[in-house]
Amino acid sequence: MTSMASARVIGVSESVERHDTPSSLRAPAAVLVVDDDEILLRGVTRMLRAKGFVVSSANNGQDALKLASSQRFDVVLSDISMPELDGVQLLRRLRDVDMHVPVVLITGEPTVSTAAAAMEYGAFRYLTKPVDPDSLLAVVERAVSYHRMARMKERAADLLGVSAGPGDRVTLEVGFARALESLWMAFQPIVEVRTRSVYGYEALMRSREPSLPHPGAVLDAAERLDTLDVLGRTARELAAAPVASTEAAGFLFVNLHVTDLLDPTLTSPDSALSKIASRVVLEITERAALDKVSNIHERLTALRRMGFRIAVDDLGAGYAGLTSFALLEPEVVKLDMSLVRDIDKSSTKQKVVRSMTSLSQDMGMLVVAEGVETPAERDTLEALGCDLLQGYFFAKPGPPFPGVRW
Ligand code: G
Ligand code: MN
Prior knowledge:
By secondary structure, the protein is α/β, with parallel strands linked by helices. It folds into two domains: about 5-160, Rossmann fold, CATH 3.40.50.2300; about 170-390, TIM Barrel (Alpha-Beta Barrel). The protein has helices at about 5-10, 15-20, 40-50, 60-70, 85-95, 110-120, 135-160, 170-180, 215-225, 230-245, 295-305, 325-330, 335-340, 345-360, 375-385, and strands at about 30-35, 55-60, 75-80, 105, 125-130, 185-190, 195-205, 250-255, 280-285, 310-315, 330-335, 365-370, 390. Helix 8 packs across helix 9 and helix 9 packs across helix 10 (about 230-245). Guanosine-5'-monophosphate (G) binds next to strand 10.
């Protein structure tokens, strides 16, 4: 018998536990058993009840989903081959209603492919029939403990203000799908120093999905799920729409991921972005590994022929060499905010930025300084000759289109 089961029976250290253990950790564990074979279903249900579990049962996947959306389970135990919704599909759909509940899949006809699918989609364990009661019990108790640990980790993450992040592949898929649905673009103005007015806006990806709380997390999820192309297309369409409807927005600055350069829709004349290409600056980070992009020159030529301009983003952010800079031959250079921060107090930063600015301008490039937060930084960057400035000092990114103050 495991420690959890014995604690339930003899009530070990009740007084201590009552004091500092959340009540949900002491409640009897709730198990949902799903099998289209009524005899097996009844057998497993009876066995688990005898061991002190609170058991609900369903003889098909749809009913199981309904039960799981109306109450919380500590573990779901499901047969794989069932008519309509099978166990693997159930596992995927369950993630819509419960991000963490462990799912134990059981099959009478084990195959390598279902086992692989089960594990890839985050099944807790994969068992083959006939399952011996002791091993089943051991797996269920282990799953309950893991689930409670997962919930405590989530609570700890909340407490510490860090993001717990999604766990398995299904959780990630569900989170990513929601992020994509709730995707919106924030626009941050870029100010022209000479006129002190808006030159254009950088579109920045935002989503309302709590499991992927910042754009980097959405991008990482897309990378892991191999859906960067979908994310890129969605973001570009969303960025183009409000800019296309008003000339007053000026230039649109759009961030590209390296894989976006390989996407045929980027050069398709029908995309929303292509239609305003002559007002668009495509930003590619200096850290991009462009050597992996075949025909980079042809692609860039095609984009420029359509009217797009190219910017090197985050220039100077701790990266030696000029590989991407030299490959891109950009029209616009965006200095990384690490060079901008406290530039008024650092003569070294001033020297570097002065040189980078004048070298870029000699090559006919426009220079943008990003991340300007104070009037002192603004004044220093103006004195050093930067053409364009961007940062919280002028305006935070927001719905189309935030105004600026100088
Ligand atoms: O990599 P890229 O330069 O595209 O990223 C820009 C990011 O910097 C955005 O997420 C944006 O919200 C953020 N940002 C914009 N202006 C400022 C600023 O003045 N200060 C800081 N800390 N971040 C900023
Ligand atoms: Mn950028």
